[in-house]
Amino acid sequence: MKEINKLSSGERFAIHFPWATLMILVTIESALTGFALPPLGLHFEDKIVHFIIFGLIGWLLVRAFTMESINWLHQHRIGWAFLLGFLFALSDEFHQAHVRGRDASWGDLLADILGITFFIYYYTKKFKNGYPEIRISESRM
User: Fold this and answer.
1) How confident is the model at residue 22 (pLDDT cuts 50, 70, 90)?
2) Is residue 54's pLDDT more than 90?
3) Which of 12, 73, 134, 140 is most open to solvent, judged by the fewest CB atoms within 10 Å of its CB?
4) 81-19-17 Cα angle (round to 5)
5) Cα(94)–Cα(72) distance, rounded to whole angstroms?
6) What's the pTM?
C-alpha cells in the first residue's frame, strides 16, 4: 500500500469542509417549514432530490476519507463513508419527524441510502487508484 503523507490542519480542513458544509445545509433545509420544490410533474421528484443530495454527501465523504492520512480511516474509507452517510440520513429523517409541518418518510430514507451507495460505488469505480490526481503534495513529511 502506498505511504500516505500526514496532512496539515489546513489540508485536513479543506478535504472535510465540503461534506460537513453540505450536511449543515441539509440540516438547515430540513428545519424549514413550507419549503417545496417547484413541481416537475413527477410523483417521486422529491426522491430524486434525496438521491442526488445524499449521493453527493456519500461522494464527498469517500473522497475525503480517501485523501485522509489517518490510516484506519483511509483503509476503511468505503465503510466509514457509508456509515457516516447512513447515520446522517437517519438523523435527518428523525429531525424532520420533529419539525412542525415536516414528516419523516421511509421512502426518503431509502432514496438517501440508495444515493449514498450508488455515488460511493461510482466514485470507487471511477477512481480505481483511490483518488483523482489532485492529491495532497507528495514531498511533505
Assistant:
1) very high
2) yes
3) 134
4) 125
5) 29
6) 0.83
Measure the CA–CA gap between 19 and 102, rounded to whole angstroms. 24
pLDDT at 117: 98
Backbone angle region of 105, left / alpha / beta, with phi > 0 → left and psi within -120 to 50 → alpha: beta
What residues have CB less than 8 Å from 56, skipping those under 6 apart? 22, 115, 119
Nearest to 128 by CA among 39, 66, 81: 66
Write the DSSP assignment of the chain as a string of letters: ----PPPPHHHHHHHHHHHHHHHHHHHHHHH-SS--PPP-S-TTHHHHHHHHHHHHHHHHHHHHHHH---HHHHHTHHHHHHHHHHHHHHHHHHHHHTSTT----HHHHHHHHHHHHHHHHHHHHHTTTSS-S-PPPSS--
Euclidean distance between CA atoms 53 and 86, whole angstroms? 13
